[in-house]
Amino acid sequence: MSKLKAIELFAGVGGFRLGLEKIGKYKVVWSNQWEPSTKAQHASLVYEANFGKQNHSNQDIAEVPTDTIPDADVLVGGFPCQDYSVATTLQNSKGLIGKKGVLWWTIHRILSEKKNPPKYLFLENVDRLLKSPSAQRGRDFAIMLKSLDDLGYAVEWRVINAADYGMPQRRRRIFFLGYHKTTALYKSLKKANPADWVLSLGTIASALPIQQTVQKPNSFEIEGDLVSISENFNLGEKLSPFQNAGVFINGKVFTVKTESSYAGKRTVLGDVLQNGEVTEEFYIPEEDFHKWEYLKGAKKEVRTAKTGFTYNYSEGGMIFPDALDNASRTIITGEGGKSPSRFKHVVQTNKGLRRLTPVELERLNMFPDNHTLLEGISDTKRAFFMGNALVVGVVEKIAQALAAKIEV
After folding, report:
1. Fold for the domain defined by 269-388
2. What is the pLDDT of residues 142-166, one digit of tens each?
3. Can you tell me the distance from the alpha carbon of 373 to that of 359, in angstroms, rounded to the nearest whole number?
């Protein structure tokens, strides 16, 4: 079989591409990375340094004409979590518009305008997507599902914690796959018992097995147009109707809480450390220990706001230093830099306490060593990239299972 053609949106430094191309069954034919808030396009420069400039776009995706994007079998991307609310435009009662700059509607536009839309979608987001916004839990995900339904796609999703499958970081993200109605996978899903699809038959279950659940599933329909869903979905309810896994086809949702099933090798934080190769700047001076200990420790104290208002503040303690015999905590974008922080990782070594290096952060996301090393890009920026990235191993597993199902 020839390689599946993929287009990669919101490419960052190329985590999706690494996972797709590692298994040898996909070829990325076009990519886009644009950071609207910065003049210097650092992530795009790193992407080009690793994959070349050919067929890579560093232009605001909202301004890229659809007819300049090549046809592909698969569209992939980790798009930003935003407010997906919908309203009708005054000029055109059939026209739908989300808030300006909301990138979900860019994906929607590309899918709706392409004469030959991608047959498969492979997307990633933060897991709070299933329960946002707080006033209408699950509304944003419902809008996305219904908008894909309108475009002829069925969807399966799962929230996956990479560490549950032996990977070195506890990073929880939602991954979802879309199947166009012209595909055999769409037809297979339509015929299947939805519980069987989620628990064993589906692509994600094939890639990352789960326990046969005793949890009670939830089934419901998403009805009405996108505007009415935006205004009314789950209004006033405290909980989202979406569990951590499910399928959506022809307006019908089946969703259930699942738990991972994995008995293989596990990579832990201690396995990724660059022992003996770390420069002094990563070590914490002894005179700063108390600052780190305070920030990481449990607190119950009275604080005063800038307005003069006083309030009781409390938070639990964190493991300090970080445990080396477990997968790491989630990397955040503020992981870099020397300043003491509650959320940065600190490890104990023979030479003392230190922060993690850019290479160690890359390894926690299963990137190749020095993938983000480029002249003019600081260690702090490299840490920022990894805080925004995904765990490549999860992409690899799902991409492998998807290719296998397409080949059948």
Report:
1. DNA Methylase; Chain A, domain 2 (3.90.120)
2. 999 999 999 999 999 999 999 999 9
3. 9
Q: Do domains 4-263+394-407 and 269-388 have the same CATH topology?
A: no
Which pairs from 238-241 meet CB under 8 Å and 24+ separation?
Answer: 238/137, 239/131, 239/137, 240/130, 240/131, 240/137, 240/138, 240/141, 241/137, 241/138
Determine the Cα–Cα distance for residues 303 and 199; give it in Å rounded to an integer.
48
Q: What confidence tens digit (pLDDT) does each residue in 350-396 have?
A: 999 999 999 999 999 999 999 999 999 999 999 999 999 999 999 99
The distance between the two most distant Cα atoms of the chain, rounded to a whole number of Å, is: 68
Q: How far apart are CA 73 and CA 6, in angstroms?
A: 6
The set of catalytic residues is: 81
Residues 366, 16: contact at Cβ < 8 Å? no
Phi-psi region of 184 (alpha: psi -120 to 50; beta: other; left: phi over 0): alpha
Q: Which residue, chain included where needed, has tokens 């994959």?
A: 51
The sign of the torsion formed by the CA atoms of 366, 19, 69, 114 equals negative
Q: What integer pLDDT is reported at residue 94 of this predicted model? A: 40
Residue spans per domain, the chain: 4-263+394-407, 269-388
What pLDDT sits at residue 51? Answer: 98
pLDDT digits (tens, 9 = 90+) for 128-139: 999 988 889 999
- Residue range 4-263+394-407 in CATH 3.40.50.150: yes
Give residues with Cβ within 8 angstroms of 37, minimum separation 6: none
